[in-house]
Write a structure and sequence with these properties.
- This protein is mainly α.
- The protein is built from 17 helices and 2 strands.
- The chain has a two-stranded antiparallel ribbon.
- Helix 3 packs parallel to helix 9 (247-256) and helix 7 runs parallel beside helix 9.
- The termini are far apart.
């Protein structure tokens, strides 16, 4: 009987060990997200300082509202709109690739494996929306912002983990990443369905034709950025003028890329393009969006409004309470009814901590806030402040919960990464193979022999030092 491959993963437990290729992909993806999240955090803090410092706060508004672009093409936009409609299209392009990869090569390709994170993500979006609606229905507020607290910002969440130095085992990180991918999918649907008021069918038809050409060129194997980048810009411009949010164009193009590997390929075209574009998205597009969207007033009056106005209170409670209850409750119920057993190395409080961490909503929440209250600049800024404060509260709660188990997480992470035989494959993936046991026995024999040599050398030097001259 052949020995199992190091990439085999027979463990179907909830939050069980990932297969080796999946673990490596998650590690690479989250490494980039963490770096981007730190830049996002820096950009958000810079925006708040810039917008709230007397003497320079007016310059923030001047730069944010400065218009440029070809008016004849309907693209004479403010800097803020270029960031929200243009740069975030790059972010959603990467999200589209991530979603496609999860569907064809990741955990979402297996319905049984996908069930728990998908149910958790759906409940994690429905519960915050319900909390928002209940608060505003009771207090007589506007229901327009129901979608604001439904989004999770994976980059910001990972940045918080990086700042406080909390490690998470790969299974928990993968669960958080899958939540974010499904979250992004439903956010895209919400933006497309609920925030499209009027449609220019001629422009939309042109965008669809452009997408068909984009797919046809990909299908024929045509290569060259000089072909795809101009075409992508045309598709984006037509989508923007159609009335459908321009970020939908980015998602559509991302979903068209092939993310399955053919024989002899080290990386699929989707993985290759994602590797090239992700740094642009995480390092430039999203931080610039944060810089020109997070600069809201945080005066005492504005903060008071966050906790007294139903729209803003609904956002805060949706992120802090709704997200946590929705994700944890949905996961627990799904596991109970599917009889899925939790990984014995983890506990349900770990799931609760990750659920509270998912309450950090930033990029997409800010975008939806702008769309939901586009006609009311004051309320838009107050909702943005609510997103920031709600995300901060969720981050503090999550960090406190995760810190309680940090020693356990570090031990699990070290066990996952241990590679005593230095073959590039963590030992935990080889521990059941005869070859692994032979290699480890040889390593231990070599270490024992080295220890004996050192002991004999030490004994010899001790005898020489006591011998009379």
């Amino acid at each position: 009987m052949a020995a199992p491959s190091p990439t085999d993963n027979k463990n179907h437990k909830f939050l069980g060990r990932l297969s080796l290729p999946e673990r490596r992909f998650v590690a690479d993806a989250l490494r980039a997200e963490t770096v981007g999240g730190v830049l996002l955090l820096v950009a958000a803090v810079a925006a708040l300082i810039w917008a709230n410092t007397p003497g320079i706060s007016n310059s923030y508004l001047t730069v944010r509202d400065f218009h440029f672009g070809p008016a004849a093409l309907g693209l004479d936009l403010s800097v803020q709109h270029w960031a929200a409609d243009g740069l975030l299209a790059v972010f959603f392009f990467v999200a589209g690739i991530e979603l496609k990869r999860e569907l064809v090569a990741g955990d979402l390709r297996d319905p049984k494996a996908a069930a728990l994170p998908v149910i958790a993500a759906v409940c994690g979006m429905a519960a915050p929306a319900l909390v928002y609606v209940l608060v505003n229905q009771t207090a007589g507020g506007s229901l327009a912002g129901w979608a604001v607290p439904t989004a999770t910002d994976i980059a910001f969440a990972l940045a918080v983990l990086a700042v406080i130095g909390t490690s998470l085992p790969s299974a928990l990180r993968a669960f958080l990443l899958t939540l974010a991918v499904v979250d992004d999918l439903f956010a895209i649907i919400i933006i497309a369905v609920f925030f499209t008021e009027t449609i220019d069918f001629l422009a939309l038809g042109g965008a669809v034709v452009g997408l068909v050409i984009f797919w046809f060129l990909l299908h024929k194997g045509v290569r060259g950025w000089y072909v795809y980048v101009p075409l992508a810009l045309v598709i984006w411009g037509l989508m923007y003028n159609s009335g459908v949010h321009a970020t939908i164009a980015g998602v559509a193009m991302g979903l068209m890329l092939r993310c399955s590997r053919k024989e002899g390929e080290e990386h699929s075209p989707g993985e290759h393009i994602e590797h090239l574009v992700r740094p642009v998205s995480a390092g430039l597009a999203v931080p610039l969006f944060a810089l020109f969207s997070a600069g809201v007033s945080l005066s005492d009056e504005a903060i008071t409004q966050v906790f007294t106005r139903p729209e803003t209170l609904g956002v805060v409670l949706g992120l802090v309470v709704g997200k946590t209850i929705g994700i944890f409750g949905g996961t627990w119920l799904a596991a109970r009814f599917t009889r899925a057993s939790l990984n014995e190395d983890l506990a349900w409080p770990d799931v609760f901590a990750v659920a509270s961490l998912a309450g950090i909503g930033f990029t997409v929440s800010l975008l939806i806030g702008e769309l939901a209250f586009a006609g009311d600049a004051v309320l838009t800024d107050e909702v943005k402040a609510a997103v920031l404060i709600g995300s901060l509260i969720a981050a503090v709660i999550a960090c406190a919960l995760l810190k309680l188990r940090d020693r356990k997480y570090r031990a699990l992470t070290e066990a996952e990464e241990r590679d005593d035989d230095l073959d590039g494959i963590p030992d935990i993936y080889e521990e059941h193979t005869p070859e692994f046991h032979l290699r480890m026995a040889k390593i231990y024999e070599e270490k024992a022999a080295e220890h004996r040599r050192r002991a004999e050398a030490a004994a010899g030097s001790s005898t020489d030092s006591t011998r009379p001259a």
